Known about the structure:
The complex is a heterodimer.
Chain A: E1 4-9, E2 21-27, E3 30-37, H1 57-62, H2 69-84, H3 90-118, H4 122-142, E4 152-153, E5 156-157, H5 163-189, H6 191-197, H7 205-210, H8 215-219, H9 251-275, E6 294-301, E7 304-312, E8 318-324, H10 326-338, H11 346-352, H12 357-361
Antiparallel strand pairs in A: 1-2, 2-3, 4-5, 6-7, 7-8
Chain B: E1 9-14, H1 20-29, E2 41-42, E3 51-55, E4 58-59, H2 63-72, E5 78-82, H3 84-88, E6 98-100, E7 110-112, H4 119-146
Parallel strand pairs in B: 1-2, 1-3, 3-5, 5-7
Antiparallel strand pairs in B: 4-6
Helix pairs in contact in B: 1-4
Amino acid sequence: MGKATVIPFGPQHPxxxxxxxxxxxxxxxKVIEAIPQIGFVHRGLEKLVETRDYNQxxxxxxxxxxICAFGHSLGYAETVESLxxxxxxxxxxxxxxxWHELSRIHSHILWLGLAAxxxxxxxxxxxxxxxRERVLSIxxxxxxxxxxxxxxxxxxxxxxxxxxxxxxxxxxxxxIKDEYRQIVNTFMKDTxxxxxxxxxxxxxxxxxxNASMVGPFARASNVPYDxxxxxxxxxxxxxxxxxxxxTQGDCYARVKVRANEVLQSIDIIEELIAGIPTGDISxxxxxxxxxxxxxxxxxxxxxxxxxxxxxxxxxxxxxxMRMRTPTSQNLAGMVxxxxxxxxxxxxxxxxxxxxxxxxxxx
Amino acid sequence: xxxxxxxxxxxxxxxxSCNGCDIEVxxxxxxxxxxxxxxxxxxGNPKHADIFLVTGSVNERNIxxxxxxxxxxxxxxxxxxxxxxxxxxxxxxxxxxVLGGVDKAIPVDVYAPGCAIRPETIIDAVVEAVGVLExxxxxxxxxxxxx
Lengths: 362, 147
């Protein structure tokens, strides 16, 4: 055994699009401990709730994170709606569900690309992002934005999707499926990819539960927990929903879980489009949350369960708004998975938790 | 500018952006917008880079990181502030941990607003940055010859 050395990793690192700093304590080529340091993206936006009223804050909530932007605006709107006892029209719930699943597809394909980039397979990275552009074109056609949509408001949504656009969405998703299967085939069967993922960063079911991990990271370690199976909003109308799990608990399993979730999301969108009712897309919301009223809410973001808490104070400004994001849960699991790994596998393991630092630090 | 005299290599750092601009910077380099056809390559090494794309505003923790990356880049170098947060702080301008735009930390040559910034704007900004880069290179050369 060699002497322990500390290697700094990040905050500016080619593999990380976001700033995360890790002190890797290594002995020879083995990582014995990883000490994360965060705070590079902290803006303090939870406090903005005191100066922006509950309708304005939805635009701030959306900008917690640009990848799960829709999920955050949805989670915030649902929390304030339950705080004020607002019933959302059914069509708005369906539309929210459709956009939410579309953002999951875009987020997972983006992640697959970044994972390919992490093990140096650049053409695969490019192929993933090329496919993702087609999902973004759906967003652009239906909301006007590519990454930040601003379509959710307290009491419903601001835009409707026409029948023509639904037909186009279905056609685009059908068109994506074939090419997507080919890309996933490379991830699952290619030897050079498997060499980097199989058996790397193993985490057992017990360890995943002990570290309270959420999302695809936990599901890859055989923890069948998915907020969507609670059947809230449009998800309650689905004929069947089973969380996708895997038992292997390594990087390969995490790739597999996310890859399958994209196909599952496409099926969900098709089912929602088939069953969408006609009617209003929003209800007028008047008044302000009562003093001391509290509400909490969970939403399944692309990266896992996100928890929201809000408290009113009788004015149109909220007293407190709090989020607990999936990555802040998963960082503990990541540090555990990093212990004992090879130095060259570090970037792969960090990437497979799909870290979203701007969610975590807000 | 009729043609670029060199292929500009870019380095990207996420200061305290919400990721929206980051993924648009990456999307610009990927098929669809394909800035690589202009010779733009994303590099992780500040010493290889000509153009510094910063997304997000400056805060207490990352101001040193931004200055460090800027110092490590070789002259001539150009800084592009990508997105409204990098230009002025944007929607987060009155957050307690936000000092303001990137120009609080390092000199900025090109401002490219947008929330989130659109890939077309990034391509525009990079083309403008190449012009500034050539200008700076010429000034450096003239100074050397003058000595």
